[in-house]
Amino acid sequence: MKLVHLFLVLILVSSLGFGQVDKQADRVWVQGSFLLPMNDFDHEGGTEFSWLARVMYRHAYTDDWSLEIGAGYGKYQGLDDTPWPSNYFYSTSFIPVDARMMFTPFRMENTRPYFYGGLGLTYYDVSIRPRQSLLSPGELSESGLTLHIPLGLGMEYYVSEGFAIDLSIGGALSLTENLNYFNEEDLPDGYLKVGLGFTFSLEGDPDPDRDGLTTDMEEKIGTNPYKADSDGDGLSDSEEVNTYKTNPLKGDTDGDILSDYSEVKDHKTSPSKADTDDDGLSDYEEINTHRTDALKKDSDGDTLSDYDEIKTHKTDANKKDSDKDGLDDNDEINKYKTSPVKADTDGDTLSDKDELMKHKTNPLKTDSDNGTVADNVEISRGTDPNNAEDDVIKKDVAIVLEGITFATGKADIKPESEAKLKEALKTLKTYSSIVVEISGHTDNVGSANSNEKLSQLRAESVKNWLVSKGVDSRRLEAKGYGEATPIADNSTKEGRAKNRRIEFKRIR
Question: What is the model's pTM?
Answer without folding.
Answer: 0.49
